[in-house]
Amino acid sequence: MLTSQSPMIDNIYLCAMKDKILKLLDDDHALCRFTEVLLQQIDNDEEPWEDKGRQILLAALNDDKANDFFIALCGYSLKSLLDMI
Predict the structure, then answer these.
(1) Is 25 exposed, middle or buried (0-12, 13-18, 19+ CB in 10 A)?
(2) Confidence of residue 1 (pLDDT cuts 50, 70, 90)
(3) 52 CB-near residues (< 8 Å, 6+ apart)
(4) What distance lies between CA 44 and its chain's CA centroid?
(5) pTM for the predicted model, two decimal places
(6) Distance (Å, rounded) from C-alpha 36 to C-alpha 32?
């Protein structure tokens, strides 16, 4: 029996997500729409700013590519953002 904790389910989910991302990368309209949705969801999220900041920084501690994410998102590296505080 497969459960939501099953590695096989996780792998299927990741493969499907990867396939969708690869399709989006070839579609400028879809890329713009993805960015719109992301920014709308950030604005609409009712979580307090300090909780958002905490979760973002904790995720950055666990991701070797976090710097790339911040540069893509706002044009600044994590170091640069931290230096602005």
Answers:
(1) exposed
(2) very low
(3) 42, 45
(4) 16
(5) 0.70
(6) 6
